[in-house]
Amino acid sequence: MALPRTIRRTNPTTLVLAGLLTLGFLVFIFSASSNAATVSTAKRKFDSAAAHPLSPPTAPFQKTASSLKGKRPPPPVVHYHMNNLTTTPDPVANQEKVLILTPLARFYQGYWDNLLALSYPHSLIAIGFIIPKTREGNAATAALQAAIAQTQNGPEDQRFASISILRQDFDPPISSQDESERHKKENQKARRSAMSRARNSLLFTTIGPSTSWVLWLDADIVESPPSLIQDLASHDKPIIVPNCFQRFKNDKGNWDIRPYDYNSWQDSPTAAEIAAKMAPDDILLEGYDIATYRTLMAKTADTSEGRDQKAIQALDGVGGTALLVKAEVHRDGAMFPPFAFYHLMETEGFAKMARRLGWSCWGLPNYFVYHYNE
Predict the structure, then answer these.
(1) Pairwise CA distance, residues 136 & 297, whole Å
(2) I want to staple 208 with a disulfide (CB 3.0 to 4.6 A). Which of 58, 84, 345, 372 is the partner?
(3) Which of 26-35, 61-70, 143-152, 156-165 is the least confident region?
(4) Beta bridge partners of 215
(5) pTM for the whole thing?
């Protein structure tokens, strides 16, 4: 059988070249598809990354590639549409970012384990710490960094979006962080002023334009429901606090629970009368030797197993052991006064300031988190 005229006239070298060109074309097509998939994956991974190194740590900065001439492009102008930021009762479905803030003087492994157990997507959680520059603070920093390294190098679903550690730029007012020393009445004004400064420094340094919620979580909270963030947010309140209890062994040697934080309360006419007679810089302390007759949330708790954990009550003062705040409340200017503000300081002063700005405070008397027992 005779070969077609076109094949008879084709040089074998031409056929080889044509085959190589065809093979090269196929390789190009498939490699381009693979690169596109890689770029798409990278984009999903870093789509929330900051576009500028001065952006807040809640959106970590990723360096841009150099141009062909060896010059980096100028820093971009970043636009944030704050009206599109949501704080809803279903923050997981709406991919709302949570900033967990913890003033830390001692590191408790129970705190870190409890943090890791939170069921809120860790990719939506940024964490900030502030630690005093003391010997005890140095030890806490070392232990914290070891825990962070293990977590952030571990399984991806356990890693947090970002973690920031601040060291205080001022000396703590008391040398010891023992519970008995921290709670002495004569230490309260200086201690709470320092705590307010630490909280404000931590807040103003770490809150970002994409932060929807701020969860204040004390370093000695070692037990909470894994769904803590979702449970608190589901009430859709600007400021909400659970009841802080403590596990202990009673006189019979059995494990029991008792109230720990008495800073969440409803005000009373008696407290208002006492405050009216105080000097401008005096503060009214709850739980000490002055009878204020405030309604303390810690005393209204139902500790039975079948309690209604969704029961809610309005509050005038809040504690800060576990405190969920819509970020817009802080952006409006509600912070922790390091001075006497209506005779209140720190978290109680924050509640007063928030109320003056038009925000309400709420508490969950039957929903418990647990404080470390020293």
Answers:
(1) 33
(2) 58
(3) 26-35
(4) 100, 324
(5) 0.82
